[in-house]
Amino acid sequence: MADIFGVVADSTRREILRILLERYNQSNTAGGELSVSDIVDKLGLSQPTISKHLKVLREAGLVGVREAGQHRYYHLDYAPLEEIEDWLIPFLSVDFDATVEELAEESEGLKVEQRAFAAAIGKAFADTSYQMAHAVKDAKPRKWRKTD
C-alpha cells in the first residue's frame, strides 16, 4: 500500500476527495457516492486520468467503490484519514507564538556587549569568507619548477 501522505500529495487526488466529501455532506441517502462520469464532469479532466487517480485512492483505502454493471460508484472512506489526523494533531496543539516569545526572552538575557561581540565576529567571518572566495576564484594555476 502506498504511503498515505504520498497519495494525498497529488492535487488532483485531493480534489477528488473534496468532491466526494461535498457529495457526502449534501446527501446521505446516496451514501455520498458519485460515478466516475460525475467526477469527470466536475473536474473537467479525462476519464482515464480520473480512473487512474481513483485507482490510487482505492488502493490506499481512501475511497470505496460499488459496482453496478459497467458503472462504478465511489465514496469517501474516512478510516485512513485518521492516520493523517493523528500525525497532524501534535503540530496543531503547539503554541508557536509562545515558543517564539520564549526564544525572544532568552536572547534578551544576553548583554549588549555580548551581542556586539557576536555581531563583530560574524561580520569578520563573512568578510574573510568573501575575500577568500574571490582570491581562490581569481587565482590562476602556476607551473612550479623544481630548481636545482
TrEMBL record:
A Pfam family hit: HTH_5
Residue ranges annotated for the HTH arsR-type domain, each copy included: 1-96
SUPFAM superfamilies listed in its UniProt record: Winged helix' DNA-binding domain
Alphabetic keyword roster: DNA-binding, Transcription, Transcription regulation
Record bears the keyword Ribonucleoprotein: no
GO MF, one annotated term: DNA-binding transcription factor activity
Gene3D superfamilies, per database record: Winged helix-like DNA-binding domain superfamily/Winged helix DNA-binding domain
Highest taxon above the source species: Bacteria
Keyword DNA-binding: yes
Entries under PANTHER family matching the protein: TRANSCRIPTIONAL REGULATOR, ARSR FAMILY, TRANSCRIPTIONAL REPRESSOR SDPR
UniProt protein name: ArsR family transcriptional regulator
Organism of provenance: Cryobacterium cheniae
Phylogenetic lineage: Bacteria, Bacillati, Actinomycetota, Actinomycetes, Micrococcales
